[in-house]
Amino acid sequence: MISKILVPADGSKTAQKAAAYAVDLAKQLKASIIALSVIDKRSLIAQTVPASETSRRAIEPIEDYLREAAEGYAGEIKKLCDKSGVAAEISIKMGHPVEEIVKGAKRSKVNLIVMGSHGRSALSASVLGSVSYGVIHNDTSIPILIVKG
């Protein structure tokens, strides 16, 4: 029986579509949701602050900016759950997204991972580092439902 669903959140339209699907499924199954957003350590090196936000955030470290964004992505899922009457919690982690999603799923003892995919080919995914591809091919016994964008 599915009682707890992990939903990774990265702010993309595909992730939002997967979240809506997961919330609807959770409502039908009377399951709860864990909205997980991972701050990719690699982005701390390459990430820049958008020009439109420079004045407000000029003195904030980039890590704080990324944490705020991650909390916003997961918070959107939480709002969707609240609106639908689905129990939810937010988890923010820092690390490699694939590893943190798999670790988070195991740690929280979820019964299902629901995540979005852009539908790239295996070759494209290996070159671009697709998170959904990495989670699917990780050694985990937790079922994974992929929602295509």
Which sheet architecture does the biggest sheet show? Answer: 5 strands, parallel
How much is the average pLDDT? 85
**Beta-strand percent range:** 15-25%
Structural class given helices, strands, pairing? alpha/beta
Rg measurement, Å? 15 Å
**Share of helical residues:** 40-55%
N- to C-terminal separation? 27 Å
Number of strands: 5
Helices, by number, come to 7
Low-confidence stretches: none
Name given to the CATH homologous superfamily: HUPs
Give me the side-by-side strand order of the main sheet: 3-2-1-4-5
Gross morphology is: globular
Structure report:
With 149 residues, the protein is of the alpha/beta class. It has one domain: Rossmann fold (3-Layer(aba) Sandwich), CATH 3.40.50. Helices cover 49% and strands 22% of the residues. The chain is built from seven helices and five strands, in the order E-H-E-H-H-H-E-H-E-H-H-E. It has a five-stranded parallel beta sheet, with helices on both faces. Strand 1 (4-8), helix 1 and strand 2 form a beta-alpha-beta unit. The radius of gyration is 15 Å and the shape is globular. The protein starts with a strand and ends with a strand.
Quick overview of this protein structure:
This protein has 149 residues and is α/β, with parallel strands linked by helices.
Topology:
Elements: E1 4-8, H1 13-29, E2 32-40, H2 43-46, H3 54-57, H4 62-84, E3 88-95, H5 97-108, E4 112-117, H6 122-128, H7 131-136, E5 144-148
Parallel strand pairs: 1-2, 1-4, 2-3, 4-5
Helix pairs in contact: 1-4
